[in-house]
Amino acid sequence: MCAHVLVAEDDEKQAELIRRSLLAEGHTATVVHDGATALDAARRLRPDLLVLDLMLPVVDGFGVCRALRDDAGPDIPVVMLTARSAEDDVLLGLDLGADDYMTKPYSPRELMARIRTVLRRGGRGAGARGEDPVVRAAGISVDPVRHEVRCDGAPVECTPAEFQILLAMAGEPERVFTRRQLLHRTRGFDRASTERAVDVHIMNLRRKIEADPRHPARLLTVFGVGYKLTGART
Questions:
Q1: Rg of the Cα atoms in the chain
Q2: Is the CB of residue 55 less than 8 Å from the CB of residue 66?
């Protein structure tokens, strides 16, 4: 079951650990670090599940959950993470509509098991819904289940880091990603990477997906900011 999971966790190390665990399970992940951004991402991306830390800045996890439950449209399953084990906090989270909760510190393996259970319970994820999990944009198709990339129908061999960069950028075409944001997508495979390593990945990807890598038409540089994949999502 491949799912898109939104992770709202202000502790960057914890967020990265969750992200890597989700990727290892075959899911895709979007990571945010405050409640206001979590609300925006949840409403815009409609993920299959939200992993939600209660102690978020700007808007706390209770506020995020309350706002999502007040929204019109389909519910998003929520697994809450809390450092506060007080019964009242747990009950309030469940009353606001959380599907499950875990108290810190927790085992990443147990968290993944809880996520699988919630996804199965709600029939969520591309595999559960029978939907096509392939992300497509600018003539590029990225299949997170089969770990395959095609460009104009032809197969493209990608390294794990290149695959994660394309998956992120095809999922949000026209969005400008900074090098640091793209580095976060690859760091699970290359812990020694620096932001300049992203430039190398982009250069190699252009050789694979551009008709003229010296004058790219798909994978563009936004000077002073980063890179974007241009082309309407299909």
A1: 18
A2: no
Q: How far is CA 53 from CA 49, 61, 65, 147, in A?
A: 13, 6, 10, 30
Q: Each residue of 41-62: b (16+ CB within 10 Å) or e? A: bbeeeebbbbbbbbbbeebbbb
Query: Do strands 4-8 and 148-151 pair parallel, antiparallel, or not at all (unpaired)?
Result: unpaired
Residue 191 CB neighbours (<10 A): 7
pLDDT in tens, 48-75: 999 999 889 999 999 998 898 887 555 7
Q: Where are the domains of the chain?
A: 4-129, 135-229
Q: Could you identify the residue written with the tokens 């815009």?
A: 44
Are 57 and 31 spatial neighbours (Cβ–Cβ below 8 Å)?
no
pLDDT, one tens digit per residue, over 165-201 is: 898 898 888 889 998 888 776 654 444 456 778 888 8
Write the CATH number of the domain with boundaries 4-129: 3.40.50.2300
Q: What topology is assigned to 135-229 in CATH?
A: Arc Repressor Mutant, subunit A (1.10.10)
